[in-house]
Amino acid sequence: MTERAAQLLVAATVISPLASALVVQLASGARPAHLLNIGLGLVCGIIGIAASVTMLAGVEVGSGVLMGDALTGVYVGVISVVSLTSALLSPSYLRGGSGETFFAARRSVRSYYLALYAFWGALVAIPLVANLGVAWLVVEATTAASAVLVAYSGKPRALEAGWKYLVLTTLGLSLAFLGIVLVFVAAAPHAGGLGLLDWSTLPEALGRMSHRAATVAYALVMLGLIAKIGLAPLQNWLPDAHSEAPAPVSAMLSAALLPAVMLLAWRMRDAAIGVLGAEAANLPLVVFGMLSVAVAVPFLWQPIAWKRMLAYSSLEHMGIIAVGITFASPIALVGVVVHVSGHAVAKALGFHASVPLFATQPRAGRHSAVGIASSSPRTFAAMAVSVVTLGGLPPSPLFLSELFIVLGGIRSGHVVAATVLALLVALAYVGLLGSLLDAARADGHGATGVGGAGVVAPDGAAAASGSRIAVATLGSVVALACLAAAAIALPGSELATRIGSGAA
Amino acid sequence: MSTAVATACVGLAIAAVVARRRSVVLVLVTLQSALLAGVAVWHAAGDVDLAPAAAGLVARTIVIAAMLGLGIARTREARPVRAGIEPMTRAALALAALLVVPALVPPLGIVAEDVQGAAIALCVLGIMLVLTRRATIVQILGIVVAENGATLLALAAPSGVPGVIEMGVVFDLVLIVVVAIAFHDRIFGEFGSGDTEHLRGLHD
Predict the structure, then answer these.
(1) ipTM for the complex?
(2) How distant, in Å, are the alpha carbons of A17, A28, A45, A64, A85 from that of A42?
(3) Per-residue b or e along B24-51, where b marks 16 or more CB atoms closer than 10 Å to that residue's CB
(4) Which residue of B111, B126, B200 is in closest CB contact with A174?
């Protein structure tokens, strides 16, 4: 493919979901909107996946506002696949709704799709944008679009979750903006264009600042991005938002948005490392990352609601990715990339499983699920695949990615950090396994069938969503197997070298 | 960027932290935004390249004030939303934060020290508005104050911030305020009040 064609494909990756947000408004009602969503979702997903494959194949894009290399290709692929599955499974979620939503009833479905596709468009732009300032604008736009989606159900708890998410992440991003302005003002006080903030020229801009000014600017930008990612101790909003959002939106938040913003933190770290030194530049990611894994572990040991458990699992995995980035050895970077991909598949499956789960056992929205293995085997299978993968049990690709990250940490001299990380991950796995065993066992009265543990008789809609989750589970297992195979082949490969050079 | 402008912005932010009524907080924050927009217009008079950014700041001031003013008029509270922290305590906390936080950041030699201090102070006071006040409208205004801190710093630079970024920030902030007002309306409709004390149901 020529570079020009690649540029057009990359631009289409961002434009197609934004255009779809407007097109779906032409639907005359809920059912036409669902059908239009399926078609538009497939188009946007295919374009995004094609762009990802193009970049992974070695076609680099550098067209001013947008950029693309192998590392970008990984993230675009992850975001496109997760967003596509969320779009395809949204009708199933929306049909099970109670009618009352954040939006006016007459337009609630179309408004949902408007916000979903606007979120998708802004989300996929994050890794593609070549400029820190423009990336900040795009991340703010994701906040606006996703906040209304978090509160979609209109229930008091969803309103609370959406409000906290909107206010706290916007405040954090305001700090990041202050840091960005500081870079601009300090690096080119008398003449500077937008290009000063390009990722490719940012190291030079930081180098023109005094060491003190560069440190303060870097700290502000990283603090803002870390607040948006929800790393501990700034994670207050994360479990609420990810658990109260509709399942398709939760999947996009956990599996796509958090890693995408983490990529910005990664690029910022790379831009600053030559000026501040490795120790100072890595400090925010190491401290907040390790703290996140440590904070997540106790919550994963508690019998909490399924989606809330998945949210804390996201806190853990973003912490692992953050620490893995700082290890910086080639094997650790391969681990990070595999981790982002494997986590996305498993986390999305876990959230999508909540749709049939709540249809079968409504109390599972507030309490730990029990007795699912017998009342809804397909749902339990999806939950099991998700948990086993997220826990890092072989042959999960996350077992390999975590192994690579730990080995990479040891090879790069971070023995203590790698050891502590490994121990925390093991503890987290035990907690996750506990929640799966809870879901399998009978409740205290020995009842696991209909009527027991709040299990309702499956109706047609629940049966249909059970079939859908079975297909999603099968697809996820295939994807995870492919990722595991790729993880074995990646270290030392040419693709790994290109991904690594994209990170440097 | 004169010391007087920077000081006035900080003074207005402190007053906003202390003020009881949300309409008064709105007026104070709008005055602050208008002051910054006025500085931008004055700069643009000498450099036409800065005109788009100045126009954006003026539009932002007017649009946000209008939207929040309509939001307040539409959702009359039966009684003022209590902040949970008394005004004098808030004032003391604000002054303490202003003494401590800017002192933690040494002079960076980029802009005048008082302007640097004022920019950081506005961010801190914006955060304080969000954390110490319960009214949703006031929390939105806290976000505006925090972003005014970055705007103050940008206006202190001789060349300003690229017009594209400034316009984008204006668009983003207006978008965030639109969404926040939609939340405020829903919260008010659900609870009969824009008091975030009603939003404390989620916990582990």
Answers:
(1) 0.94
(2) 10, 20, 5, 28, 9
(3) ebbbbbbbbbbbbbebbbebbeeeeebe
(4) B126
Find the CB nearest B190 among A156, A185, A302: A156
Query: What string of pLDDT tens digits covers the 204 residues of chain B?
Result: 688 999 999 999 999 999 999 999 999 999 999 999 999 998 888 888 788 888 989 999 999 999 999 999 999 888 778 877 888 899 999 999 888 888 888 888 888 888 999 999 999 999 999 999 999 999 999 999 999 999 999 888 766 666 767 777 888 888 999 999 999 999 999 998 888 888 888 777
Asked if the Cβ–Cβ distance from A178 to B119 is below 8 Å, we say yes
Which residues of B are less than 8 Å from A143 in CB distance? 176
Instruction: Please check whether residue B25 is in contact with residue B16, taking contact to mean a CB–CB distance below 8 angstroms.
Output: yes
A166 touches chain B (CB under 8 A): yes
A219 touches B: beta carbon within 8 Å: no
**Phi and psi at residue B2, in whole multiples of 5°?**
-90, 160
Q: Do A160 and B201 touch (CB under 8 A)?
A: yes
Q: Does A402 touch chain B (CB under 8 A)?
A: no
Query: Which chain A residues contact residue B164 at CB under 8 A?
Result: 133-134, 194
Are B82 and B101 a contacting pair, CB within 8 Å?
Answer: no
Q: Which of A148, A182, A191 sits opposite B110 (nearest CB)?
A: A182
Query: A150, A165, A167, A201: which to substitute to probe chain B, counting the most B Cβ within 10 Å?
Result: A167
How far apart, in whole angstroms, are the C-alpha atoms of residue A186 and residue A176?
15
Residues of A in contact with B180 (CB under 8 A): 166-167
CB B39 within 8 A of CB B155: yes
A466-481 residue pLDDT tens: 788 899 999 999 999 9
User: Which pair of structure tokens corresponds to residue A148?
Assistant: 């209304």
Question: Buried (b) or exposed (e) across A218-236, using 16+ Cβ within 10 A?
Answer: bbbbbbbbbbbbbbbebbe
Start-to-end CA distance of chain A, whole Å, equals: 25
Closest-CA distance of chain B to residue A69, Å: 25
Q: Nearest to residue A143, comparing CAs of A167, A110, A127?
A: A167
Question: Within 10 Å of residue B70's Cβ, how many Cβ atoms?
Answer: 11
- Six-digit token pair at A221? 């930008």
Q: Residue A448: pLDDT band by 50, 70, 90 thresholds?
A: very low
Q: Are A426 and A363 in contact (CB under 8 A)?
A: no
